[in-house]
Amino acid sequence: MGNTPLHCAAYRAHRHCALKLLKNGADSKIRNKNSQTPFDLAQGAEMKLILGGSLEKVINKRLKRYEGLLWMVRPLFRFL
Q1: pLDDT (average), residues 59-73
Q2: The dihedral of CA 31, 12, 22, 48: what is its sign?
Q3: What topology does CATH give the domain 5-77?
């Protein structure tokens, strides 16, 4: 059907797999042969949040609260 791994993860509600794919650059806007995005195939509200990007915003907000500015500075010091 022309589904990507992200389409399959969304359809089967494998949230950890979908998060891993998205963090590693999977395109959530890509369409399969039936012109469906992973969001269209998503099973459950939590998967729709993950694919819609809302969950990432919540996670980043929590990181800012608990780690302060450290979460922004950390990538600068990866070479150490």
Answers
A1: 62
A2: positive
A3: 1.25.40
